[in-house]
Amino acid sequence: MDHKFTYNWKLSETVFSKGRGTVFSCFAGGGGSSMGYKLAGFDVIGCNEIDPKMMECYRENLHPKYSYLEPIQTFKLRDDLPDELFHLDILDGSPPCSNFSIAGNREKDWGKEKVFREGQQLQVLDTLFFDFIDLVKRLQPKIVIAENVKGLCMGEAWNYVRRIYKEFEEAGYNVQDWLLDASKMGVPQRRERIFFVGLRNDLCKPFLYQKDMFTLKPKLKLEFNEKEIKFQEIYTKEENRKKMQEVLNNAYDYCIQNNTADFAKYYETTTSKRKYFNTRLIFKNNVCDTIKSDCTHIIEGEKAYINETELRYAGTWPIDYVCKNNKIDYLIGMSVPPVMIAQIASEIYSQWLSKIEREI
User: Fold this and answer.
1) Residues 26, 47, 57, 97: which is the catalytic one?
2) Which fold would CATH assign to domain 22-227+336-359?
3) Where are the alpha helices (DSSP H) in the chain?
4) Confidence of residue 272 (pLDDT cuts 50, 70, 90)
5) Is 97 in the active site?
6) Residue-wise pLDDT tens digits, 123-140
7) What residue segments make up the domains of the chain, in order of their start?
8) What are 167-201's pLDDT values in tens digits?
């Protein structure tokens, strides 16, 4: 089965069309989502990012027309924004989300002002989503797309989701959310993310359907079922892989014997302490687990780590992407896989934007 988009590609060899609309990306990182929009035929005209090392990468690889290296709290209040930003087809954003991750402290960190790795500045991460919605209110793009971790729709975090919906409604948007798995979308890793997709109210009428007795929603089908890409397909033979530390031998054997990828389970079982929770075992005949920003994935049968080429394939990042002073696992782990966004953006164009253009 052929995939709509390939995981093995180069920026230097890809001819991007620009006929499907304009996009601006917030919390842009190294450009994962931006590259996805470009693959889908959109013109990404600019970005906002707080981290100078990330912005250096973005500018080096994607050459944005507009780029703003500053907190979104500053950016949203600018009085010198170009007119193009007030006529966007899509405003994209992936607010930093570690406070909601099921691997983090969750409720213990909510509302706390801390210095996070993203930009090395004091921030309250769980309010950044609402700063993004403030920008939506001001720019009024046709469509808004916001991505976050699966943990946002679990437990007490649902209170934030309710507020997100309320704020989008006040901004003038009809919003829906989808929990999507990248491995079903032509991405060689399991990565579940929640996507909020909103259509501006004045554009909704041609697409509305009766969702239930009380709710009208603009119809949008985001269902993907591409064949999974197992690690064996992206595996590259390499003699000089970084070897696993001997201290992990017992945990490695436990994972093999119990058919689990989670090294932390060994330590929970033997010491009642959960550690090495970011260390994962890659079974060659399975899809690779989620690539984290400090990826320590170990390959079954080799006791050695995943290499850079395999990381790029698993993240659907270009083989020739220039990382500058960033590690590739950090760039990929902090970003939406380009192919994941390309799939979503293609559907939004075919189901909404192409029809809106004809109406106009």
Assistant:
1) 97
2) Rossmann fold (3.40.50)
3) 32-39, 52-62, 72-75, 128-139, 158-171, 231-234, 249-258, 264-271, 308-315, 328-333, 338-348, 354-359
4) confident
5) yes
6) 455 689 999 999 999 999
7) 22-227+336-359, 231-332
8) 999 999 999 999 999 999 999 999 999 999 999 99
